Amino acid sequence: MTENTQKSFSLTAAPCVLVLISGIFLCSFLFAQQSFAAAASDKEHLQNPLVLAVCIIEAKQDYWRGEFFKKEDSVQKSIQSFRTILKEMDKNENPEMWRIAQFCLGAALATLDQLKGSSAHCEEAITAFRAALESLDREQLPTEWGKLHRYFGYALYDSGATKKDIAILKEAISVFQHAIKNLPQGKDTEVWDARAWYQTQYGLGKTFKLLGTLENNPQHLETFIAIYKTIATKRLYHWSPKEWLYVQDTLFFAVDDLGTKYYDDASASSEQKAKGFQLKQESLDIGAAVIQKIASEIPLK
To answer: At 159, phi and psi to the nearest 5?
Structure first.
C-alpha cells in the first residue's frame, strides 16, 4: 500500500470510526435512560441520586419541549412526572433535587395555565414555589433565589387577578421586589440578567397597576407608570419590538387615564388638576414618540 493510499484510507476511515463510536455511545445512553425510567416507578430506586437526576432531566426535557413548541401534552407529561418524583422521593435524602423538582413543577403548572389561558393550576404552582423557597439558601444561590421569586411573583399575580384578592397582590409585589434586589440592573449586565431584570420589573409594574385599579389608589398607578418608564428602553425595543410597543401602548393609556382622573375630579385641588393636565400632555408625547419610532423603522420607497 503506497503512502498516498494509506493517507487516503485514514482520511476516509476516521469519520466512519467516529460515527461508529458515537452510535455506540448513543445506544448505550438510550438504553441506560430507558432503564432509569423503568426504575423510576419503584420508590426504592428513586432514592438513587443518579436515577433521580435522570428522571428529573427527562421531565425537564418534556417541559422545555412543551414550552418551546406550545405543546400542552408535553407540559402535562412533565407535570405528571414531577408529581410522581416528589411523591416517591425522600426530601431529606436529596434536598437539592427535591427543591429543583418543586421549582420545575411550579414552572410547568404556570406554563400549562398560560397555554390554556386559565388559572386552574395557579394554587398548586404557588404551593410548589413556596416549598422550593423554603429549602433555598439566598446567600449561597442569590441568582436562583431571585429567579424563583420572579416565577413565584407571577403565580401570585395570576391568583390575585383571578380572585381580585388585594392581599395576594400585595404579596406578589413583595415577592417581585425581593427578586429585583437579587438581580443585576438592566443597563450594565449580560443579556440574560438584563432580560430577567426587565421581566421582573414588568411583573411588578402590572401588579401595581391592578392593585391601584382595585383600590382606586392613584399612588399605585403612579408607581406602575414609573416602573414601565424604566423598562420602555431601546434595549427592550431591540430584543422585542412587539413587547416594546405593548409597554408603550399600556403607558399611553395609563398616563392618559390617570390624567383624566386627576383633572375631572370635582374635589381635586388646583395642584392636582394641573398634574392631571400635565399627565394628559405626557400621554400625547408618548404617543407621538411611538409613531415617530415606528415611522423611522419603515423604509422609504
So the answer is: -65, -45
Choose among 28, 24, 47, 46: nearest CA to 37: 46
**Per-residue exposure over 73-86, b if at least 16 CB sit within 10 Å of its own CB, e if not:** ebbbbbbebbbbbb
Q: Are 231 and 250 in contact (CB under 8 A)?
A: no
Q: What is the largest CA-CA distance in the chain?
A: 103
Give the model confidence (pLDDT) of 165-203 as tens digits: 999 999 999 999 999 887 765 444 555 577 888 999 999
Q: Nearest 5°: phi and psi at 118?
A: -140, 180
Residue owning grid cell 455511545: 25
CA distance from start to end of the chain: 67
Extract the C-alpha cell encoding 208. Answer: 401595581
Mean pLDDT along residues 266-285: 93
**Three cell numbers, residue 142:** 442569590
Nine-digit cell at 219? Answer: 399612588
Give the per-residue SS3 of the chain.
CCHHHHHHHHHHHHHHHHHHHHHHHHHHHHHHHHHHHHHCCCCCHHHCHHHHHHHHHHHHHHHHHHHHHCCHHHHHHHHHHHHHHHHHCCCCCCHHHHHHHHHHHHHHHHHHHHHHCCCCCHHHHHHHHHHHHHCCCCCCCHHHHHHHHHHHHHHHHHHHHHHCCHHHHHHHHHHHHHHHHCCCCCCCCCHHHHHHHHHHHHHHHHHHHHHHHHHCCHHHHHHHHHHHHHHCCHHHHHHCHHHHHHHHHHHHHHHHHHHHHHHHCCCCCHHHHHHHHHHHHHHHHHHHHHHHHHHHHCCCC
**Inter-residue contact 121 to 170 (CB < 8 Å):** no
pLDDT tens string 19-72: 445 544 444 444 444 444 444 444 455 667 788 888 999 999 999 999 999 999
